[in-house]
Amino acid sequence: MTDQDYFKLAVAAAHQGLDTWTNPQVGAVIVKDGQVIATGYHHQFGQAHAEVDALSQLDDVADAKDSTVYVTLEPCSHYGKTPPCAKRLAEVGVARVVIGQQDPNPLVSGKGIQLLEDHGVAVTVLNQTADLNEAYTYFYQHHQPYFTLKYAMSLDGKINGAGMTRTQLTSEPAQQDVQQLRSRQHAILIGEHTLLNDDPQLTVRTRQQAFPPIRIALVRDANQLDRRLKLFNNAAPTWFLSETEVTTSVPENVKVVVRPEWTPVVISQYLAEQGLQAVLVEGGSQVQAAFLAADLVNELVVYVAPKVLGGAGLPAAVGEPLTAAFNLGAPTITQFGHDVRVRARRV
């Protein structure tokens, strides 16, 4: 097997880490004498990193001496919630480390590689991300969250029918895919109209998560909100971004943050300060238009249902105009039952 073959095993392991929160998904494979002797991954935020998890799979850690470790991301070199992995690999006598990607986090970037080399460990960097940790990488490269804009629409481009009642567009298979999309986010954001008209839960209902996405709603005055709204339940943390100081009590899981005006740029800056890397914008049409106009949307995920809502229906984006059209990369198109998902990223 080649370096690429072993690296693919590490990537597959990384994908098993579903609760890493703001930590990256990382997988590691230990190879000695042409045999895989251990595989590990980062299971959950605050727990052992992939390299240490792989070492823990060995009957005797001494077996790691003179081995090659394949890891999808540069081993850390600092003390955080866990000790530095690069130091541990050097201590057990690993001969070589093959790294998929240098860590973009400035706490680590290049330092883990340097520590390994300083201890006589050979290092190879493949410069391959394997589509892991896209939001994590973007966050540290651009110092702002990776925003995904998601909505469902009819064939004539409408996200809701006439009137204030919510129109159910997609079927169960597409809705299940939305749950998977939500599960990979740090926050889900909606506007006040969506909050009041739809009263959504904004939760991941397909599995339990140690760190569910934070539910965020933009509101003019949090004091005026009906406490029976689902975002006030304790299913997940909720942040209300309000333009008015809150004078009433709120549940423990609810935080109210006040600014004179919550523009998309201000929202992006605040969420970046909180360390949130992946944010899903779920409407409504004015919020979607505002984020598009602010040039903050990195990816669009659009579910198209075989329905027609007519001229009185609500378009996907209404309000602030674009200064100029922008291009997206070639979309991927996937069918879910009778619905179609179109997914495209900025180029």
From TrEMBL:
Gene Ontology molecular-function annotations: 5-amino-6-(5-phosphoribosylamino)uracil reductase activity; diaminohydroxyphosphoribosylaminopyrimidine deaminase activity; zinc ion binding
Binding site for Zn(2+): 49, 76, 85
Name used for this protein in its record: Riboflavin biosynthesis protein RibD
Database matches in Pfam families: dCMP_cyt_deam_1, RibD_C
Any one GO BP annotation for this protein: riboflavin biosynthetic process
Entry-linked SUPFAM superfamilies: Cytidine deaminase-like, Dihydrofolate reductase-like
Origin superkingdom: Bacteria
InterPro entries with a match to the protein in the record: APOBEC/CMP_deaminase_Zn-bd, CMP_dCMP_dom, Cytidine_deaminase-like, DHFR-like_dom_sf, Eubact_RibD, RibDG_C, Riboflavin_Biosynth_HTPR
Active-site residues per Swiss-Prot or TrEMBL entry: 51 (proton donor)
Protein's pathway: Cofactor biosynthesis; riboflavin biosynthesis; 5-amino-6-(D-ribitylamino)uracil from GTP: step 2/4; Cofactor biosynthesis; riboflavin biosynthesis; 5-amino-6-(D-ribitylamino)uracil from GTP: step 3/4
Protein residues bound to substrate: 182, 202, 205, 282
Role description: Converts 2,5-diamino-6-(ribosylamino)-4(3h)-pyrimidinone 5'-phosphate into 5-amino-6-(ribosylamino)-2,4(1h,3h)-pyrimidinedione 5'-phosphate.
Note describing how the cofactor binds: Binds 1 zinc ion.
